[in-house]
Amino acid sequence: MPPDFLSNLYVFVLAGFLAFEIVRRVSPLLHTPLMSLTNALDAIVVVAAIIIAGRHESRLSVVLGLIAVAASFSNMVGGFFITDRTLRMFKAGKAKQ
Question: What is the per-residue pLDDT across 1-59, written as a single tens digit (0 to 9) for each?
């Protein structure tokens, strides 16, 4: 195993743990703006995953890149649907008054 792989894996696990802890402590009032922000971040991740998968450095990088593209894209699209639904609920509440 190359030494870069272990350091990258360490950074990935640490970033995942940090993101989980940060998102877990967000108040419910901020979830909709946070969802919009994560949609933008997922779009950046999709582009980066496409670049990684397109390099063809090894089969593993291509497979992991394709998995990252699929996971980020599905998360991004789902986040947009949820954000749109939440915003429509707020608009419907104001229109009834």
Answer: 677 888 888 888 888 888 788 777 777 666 666 666 777 777 777 888 888 788 888 88
Q: Yes or no: say if 67 and 94 are a contact pair by the CB < 8 Å rule.
A: no
Q: What's the pTM value of the predicted model, to 2 decimals?
A: 0.55
- Type and span of the H or E element at 42: helix 31-54
25 in Cβ contact with 34 (< 8 Å): no
Sign for the CA dihedral angle at 57, 63, 66, 67 comes to: negative
Q: Is the dihedral of CA 4, 1, 49, 17 positive or negative?
A: negative
Which are the contacts of 42, defined by CB distance < 8 A and separation ≥ 6? 72, 73, 75, 76, 79
The domain ranges of the chain are 29-96
DSSP annotation of 26 reads: S
The residue whose two tokens read 């877990």 is: 24
